[in-house]
Amino acid sequence: MKTNHQSPSPINSRENVLIDKFGRQISYVRLSVTDRCNLRCVYCMPREKMRFLPRDELLSFEEIVRLMHILASLGIRKVRITGGEPFVRKDIIKLIEFISEIEGIERIHITTNGILTSKFIPQLKEMGIRGINLSLDTLDSRKFYELTRRDNFKAVMDSFHKILEYEIPLKINTVLLDGINTDEIIPLSLLARDYPVDVRFIEEMPFNGNPHNPAKIRWDYRQILEVLFQEYPDITKIPDSPHSTSMNYRIPGFQGNVGVIAGYSRLFCGQCNRIRINAKGLLQTCLYGSPELNVKELLRKHDDDDIIKEALQTQVNKKYRNGWEAEKANIAARIANESMSIIGG
Ligand code: SAM
Ligand code: SF4
Fold this sequence. Notes:
The mean pLDDT is about 90. This protein is an alpha/beta fold. The chain contains twelve helices and twelve strands. It has a domain of about 230 residues: Aldolase class I (TIM Barrel, Alpha-Beta Barrel), CATH 3.20.20. Strand 3, helix 3 and strand 4 form a beta-alpha-beta unit. Bound molecules: S-adenosylmethionine (SAM) and iron/sulfur cluster. The site of iron/sulfur cluster has 13 residues, from helix 12.
């Protein structure tokens, strides 16, 4: 593979990092490697007529590796590979391996629906993958079909057990939908009792490719916590790691923790250290904002990495304070919310 890049300096000077106007240093990128998916989760995509991007609209592996070298040189240390479903992209395992060899990238995490993941677990372990977030919204195979419009619950559970077998840190992501899986908060939380996994309940966010989203949700973090507190009176809040998106709790006798991700209520924006490169190769500095910089075009137009670095730094400096401000600007620009499969979650 041609690697047209400059090595990162081991310690980044302040001029050589991504920092926003609020003084927040960006050290984490979420990379959506495809918008394609083998499920059609109701909260993420329409049932039919999802128009996926033509191949040449995705960043090539070579472009991604070059970009990751540039980002590493700007102080990015953590990468999350997401999508769409990352494992539907051909040879994705090779890309993950290339990224794992980049100097400066210290932690690779993956978010997956688990359908195709199981067979790659030994290789991922070998590469030193730091964690896998597995999306699992129900323990009932019929409900799985209702939620994902596909019939493959067993494959997800196979991945669940394989990840545990290879001792890769595992977190479960559960999006809660009123009246569909909200009765499963307790059964799903018990996974953290029976296995060494963290289970996180996610507020539904308005990213299903449909511009007409409800103005509020019933199952916000308060409602979710109420159910957990009622069932587990001895539940205690534990300190969250500095840039955590989840509020985390310990339940006596449980091997893992339970958490709530208030993605709709946006409680975690203040400490944000993240940017996103979406499936179209566009930089998005806030989940609730619109894409701000066409990184793909820059990579294709310029051989000089410094031009890309400068453009990234300028844009990151303009990062919104929080998701509310980003959304306001988004609405002002009349941009409909994309499917989460393009943004990457
Ligand atoms: N396909 C992979 C998966 O489902 O894990 C990775 C991509 S998916 C877009 C990343 C995460 O976003 C998943 O945990 C998914 O549950 C979550 N997600 C998707 N749409 C969402 C929505 N409207 N609200 C909240 N979370 C959502
Ligand atoms: Fe696919 Fe993940 Fe979206 Fe579900 S949430 S449709 S698995 S990209």
